[in-house]
Amino acid sequence: MAETIDLEELQSELLSEIAAAKDLGALEQVRVSALGKSGRVSAVMKRLGSLPAEERKTFGAAVNAVKTRVSEALDSHKTILESAALEARLASEQADITLPVRPGPVSEGRIHPVSHVMDELAEIFADMGFAIAEGPDIESDDYNFTKLNIPQEHPARQEHDTFYFHPDSNGERLVLRTHTSPVQIRTMLSQKPPIRIIAPGRVYRCDSDQTHTPMFHQIEALVIDESTHMGHLKWVLEEMCKAFFEVDEVKMRLRASHFPFTEPSAEIDIGAEAIGKPGQWLEIGGCGMVHPNVLVNCGLDPQRYQGFAFGMGIDRMAMLKYGIPDLRAFFSADLRWLRHYGFSMLDVPTLAGGLSS
Ligand code: PHE
């Protein structure tokens, strides 16, 4: 029976199958069909048991020789296919490092001028020892008005064009904050003097035309100490303007005005020559010494403490510094506008490196 198996033919068949395998997958199939548990070589091996003892030895040795030969052929062909696969992969995954860098999110993305100006101002005030404070956009009537010395029937409430929420079951109504001044209240209620904070953020007024949008940005500043006076206020404003407009001299004036939460109060004007419009004054915000009633409302003794506050329009300052003519374009989400006026995200403003470079 054993004689009917032609080992040489089996071997030459298997070797030519191996040589014909075009890839590693095909080669593996050949291996399984030859040496696998129910492969052809294994099948021949199984017959050994049924042979007479004297034949078993020579036949066994012959089958083993076939097995070894086939294994070697499998191994060497595998090496050849593997290096061919590697060559192919190296060729297909080749990177041409001479190509110019493709623009990615870091170079394509732009920081909105408002965000950039906020960063610039944060940098300027941090340098003067101010911390950043925050408050919510949805504010209580009490913090937005009453504690700021604007009681229920005060005419200043009308001037603010407030967005009111529906009153709750206690009759209290929340508002979209009309200015960042409620952050003054929050700060004085939660911190002990000396206080030196700025609070940038969104504010809302029901107003919309070429120079007004229903949402805009302000930055508030508050300083409370035991010997603070208007001279400090004016110095801080002047230093801020010089640093912000990146000039050595800036013409600035405080024009007497009125806010319920400051006394005295003033409007801050800057000479527009700083931005190439000589002879004009531009209003950038309001300021004053914190009204004693506001201090009392926050549990501070006005005999001991006093301080100043100011609030400025960030959008207005961005327009002035970067020569942006239309306020509405700030919020129209026009990508072309953002590409033109926006800032690279790697351009983080620092006093040392230049704010707007
Ligand atoms: N909150 C005032 C406004 O929005 C600005 C201001 C802030 C004035 C702080 C004085 C002091 O018009």
TrEMBL record:
Its EC number is 6.1.1.20. It catalyses: tRNA(Phe) + L-phenylalanine + ATP = L-phenylalanyl-tRNA(Phe) + AMP + diphosphate + H(+). One of its GO terms (cellular component) is cytoplasm. Keywords: Aminoacyl-tRNA synthetase, ATP-binding, Cytoplasm, Ligase, Magnesium, Metal-binding, Nucleotide-binding, Protein biosynthesis. Mg(2+) binds at E263. Its main location: cytoplasm. Its cofactor is Mg(2+). Belongs to the class-II aminoacyl-tRNA synthetase family. Phe-tRNA synthetase alpha subunit type 1 subfamily. This is Phenylalanine--tRNA ligase alpha subunit.
